[in-house]
Amino acid sequence: MRFPHSLRALNHRDFRLFFCGQLISMVGTWMQSVAQAWLVLELTGSAFKLGIIGTLQFGPVLLFSFLAGAVADRVQKRRMIMATQSVLMLQAFALALLCWSGHARFWHVALLAAGYGLANTLDMPVRQSFVVEMVDGKADLPNAIAINSAMFNGARMIGPAVAGLVIARWGVATAFALNALSFLAVIFALAAMRSDGPPSLGEKGSIKDDMLAGLRYAQHTPEVLIVLCVIFCVSLFAINHNVMVPLLARVKLQQGAHGFGLMMSALGTGSVIGALIFAWWGRQPPLRLLFATAVFSSALTAALGFVDQFAPAMILLTLVGFFQILFMASSNTMLQAEAPDHMRGRVLSLYTFVFAGVSPIGSFLMGTLAHSFGVSAAYVAGGAAALACVAALAWVWVRRTARIRA
Questions:
Q1: Which of 238, 250, 344, 352 could staple 301 via S-S, CB 3.0–4.6 A?
Q2: What is the pTM of this model?
Q3: What is the dihedral of CA 215, 393, 230, 202, to 10 degrees?
Q4: What is the CATH number of domain 5-194+207-405?
């Protein structure tokens, strides 16, 4: 069976196996995201402490993503992903056991969130740079990234809704346990692949030299540098859903676990639609698409600060998900297409740094703003700050382009 052109990356056996395993696993991951946020609010009732959990979960990315990128360019990626996914499975089982036993405390969640962050820091650049190996080169890479994005956000559409129902009926422990079991799907899929793929590093030097080489490459490649700067701004101020959506649901809109799950699913619904459109389009995105989607994402985030009813919030979250996935898929494709094979892991570690690595800062900032001034003020401030930064970067890039043409 051959897949249609808009799904052509699935014609590659290894990518097809990975897609199926990851789809199941990501549904579980989104279930855990909802369950963890709900557990923290049940234990503490504090927006500030919810922000701390986000900081701990993504803090290791901030500290160690460059190192992870250098490692990604040296290792056999399939085996490394199997190891990191196994660690994440054990972390989910630990949360489930703590909740089932009735011994879960805030410090347990904080410690396990930090452990999750360490494993995920290594997993992300390795897993993302493995995609090009699974599809045998760059020809089908944009399509593979779009399908991956659709899978990720399809899971975000399903997982939170299921988590809301599971938590309401059986409690957070069951959601954590189901996530732990879901990792078996991706581990079995990786085990069934035919090839590890060789490490892509061209010249073997020290890890420090490799890290510095990646930074120098990004610094002296304007197209890579501007993409990273835009991602940094939007991720810092506008993509803090793990902190802000539960606060919007519980504090401002007075929703229970089910309503919170539906709101997270709205984000996923918009993201799936955007990812499928990107897969159908299937071309190298222009830089203007990156700027346009960044502007819309930022403006819609600010608009969430003005909603006070459930239905308008669902509509806005769907639109936010749509534009943010176009933004992230475009930026990921641009970076992977621009990066040489031996440098891809390090370039993607920079992507991980500016996307997930700044999340601890953003989570802490937005959690603090929401705690001090309210959820609405935090949304408006975050969206406005992202919009201003993107506008400034667009102006700098237009000036640079004009100078070159002159």
A1: 238
A2: 0.74
A3: -30
A4: 1.20.1250.20
SS (H, E, C) the chain: CCCCHHHHHHHCHHHHHHHHHHHHHHHHHHHHHHHHHHHHHHHHCCHHHHHHHHHHHHHHHHHHHHHHHHHHCCCCHHHHHHHHHHHHHHHHHHHHHHHHHCCCCHHHHHHHHHHHHHHHHHHHHHHHHHHHHHCCCCCCHHHHHHHHHHHHHHHHHHHHHHHHHHHHHHCHHHHHHHHHHHHHHHHHHHHCCCCCCCCCCCCCCCHHHHHHHHHHHHHCCHHHHHHHHHHHHHHHHCCCHHHHHHHHHHHHCCCCHHHHHHHHHHHHHHHHHHHHHHHHHCCCCCHHHHHHHHHHHHHHHHHHHHCCCHHHHHHHHHHHHHHHHHHHHHHHHHHHHHCCHHHHHHHHHHHHHHHHHCHHHHHHHHHHHHHHHCHHHHHHHHHHHHHHHHHHHHHHHHHHHHHHHC
What tokens were used for 294? Answer: 């960044």
214-225 per-position pLDDT tens digit: 888 888 888 889
CA 320/CA 245 separation, integer angstroms: 12
The encoded tokens of residue 348 equal 């993607």
354 vs 361: CA distance, rounded Å: 11
Angle at 38 between CA 109 and CA 244, to 5 degrees: 100
The overall average pLDDT reported for the chain is 85
Distances in whole angstroms, Cα of residue 61 to Cα of each of 57, 75, 140, 206, 258: 8, 19, 28, 21, 30
Q: How far is CA 149 from CA 22, 59, 200, 274, 311, in A?
A: 11, 23, 24, 9, 26
CA distance 133 to 119: 22
2, two tokens: 């051959």
- Of residues 131, 401, 148, the one with CA closest to residue 286: 401
Instruction: Average the pLDDT over 183-204 and give the result.
Output: 74
pLDDT range class, residue 6, cuts 50, 70, 90: confident
Q: How far is residue 189's CA from residue 24's CA, in Å, rounded to a whole number?
A: 11
pLDDT at 71 over 90: no
